[in-house]
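Minutes, project check-in
Item: structure for the 347-residue chain
Input as provided by the requester:
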Amino acid sequence: MPPTANSLTDEATTETAESAARHPRRRPILHRVVLVQTAVIMLLVLIALPIAFRSMGGELLAQQQHRLYAFPSGVPVAESVIDDGAVPHSYFNIAAVDLDEAAGSLTLAISGHRVCPDTCPTLTLALVSLNEGAHQRRALPPSAEITLTPDQDIFTETVTLPLQGHPSLYPFDVYTLWLGLAGSVEANGQEVPLSQELVLEHAIITTQNQVRENTLWPPVAIDPQRVQGLTDPFAFFGVQQLRFDRPVHMEILTALLLTLMAISAILAVAMRDIRDLIFGVGSLILAVWGIRSVLIPESLPVTTSVDMALSVIILVVLLGLIVRAAWHFAGEGDVGGMPRRWREGRQ
């Protein structure tokens, strides 16, 4: 006797009931897991945003640009440190004014003035980009030299030195310059090398960061003997480490935007109807890649970690679309052996 419509309905109801009996808590557990993950993400956002806003306020007000550090100790300079009664005396300020990530270089502006009872002596100052491995190198590392003649009481010079860093790690890229200073001064017709004692007695040297896109860590003094090569033509009277990274808010906002974008893309692939997903996948990919113009400055012409993260998100979206499409067409074609619950829930 052929099965009737009522018998088929009873069989379907029985199978559904059996499936529900086998997995009574699957959906509630899944929903709870998603709810907990959402709550954790919201908590992280609430914790991170005040830190990011504080960092943004510091950058907008250019707080770091007014901060000076003594060379080479790295101690913040206060007004009480300045000794106006010391004559003769020279005042030097070395300010970082531009950091070129693509070229791997840092531009420094050396400015100041000299106070002399009569005529100021001729002074030569060498700025050297140093690094580890002084015992291995033979040639002097990249350097720049400025010369102040007796008629130059007020001066401003600009030099460019290479620095170490990896722009592909943006916005978690860090750049380091070990700045070594050496030089000489003419006294009584003789050239006298600048020593630590001579500089401390007759000069005040400060360092400063004026690069808005990068934050300068408190400078650290480095022992000159650590970087002094056997064949160097002069001795360094001071070496200071200048370390630059991105403002905290850039790192936080990048991590949050990438995380939220990835979650949104995965939810769109998993929950949207397959027909809407097929027609809207192009817009979804454009929306994901559009985040790049918000996060990465145009002056950074290299492939960064943000590009790689966005590429992975787009790859996941496309793979999810392929899986959803295969699932859909397998159900439409009534592929043998495909569980009934998959066919019923394929969309």
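Outcome recorded: The helical segments are 5-22, 26-60, 196-202, 224-227, 248-271, 274-295, 305-332, 340-344.
No further action items on this chain.
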